């Protein structure tokens, strides 16, 4: 099993969610986050005053999938979230040692 952690632009969330649902993903966790990477924030003007926004709003997706589909899911996220502009996000894949569905007691891939 693998944990996929992806950061994407907020306006891409629904499109990515639909693509993952179509690819067979049955669940994911979504968190609104702020961060910066290569773009290092940006400058905005509010009521005539210029100020720097150091942290940019992002969405963090977390989902656990079986080893057999991890490459397909990563590709789905990347292709759907891509705008071609700076700040499109990152995807990390991490090994998962154990999973447990609390309600039923199912473990590992049965818990997915």
From TrEMBL:
GO CC annotations on file: cytosol
SMART domains per UniProt: P-II
Modified residues (O-UMP-tyrosine): 51
Cross-referenced Pfam families: P-II
Function: P-II indirectly controls the transcription of the glutamine synthetase gene (glnA). P-II prevents NR-II-catalyzed conversion of NR-I to NR-I-phosphate, the transcriptional activator of glnA. When P-II is uridylylated to P-II-UMP, these events are reversed. When the ratio of Gln to 2-ketoglutarate decreases, P-II is uridylylated to P-II-UMP, which causes the deadenylation of glutamine synthetase, so activating the enzyme.
Family: Belongs to the P(II) protein family.
Official protein name in the record: Nitrogen regulatory protein P-II
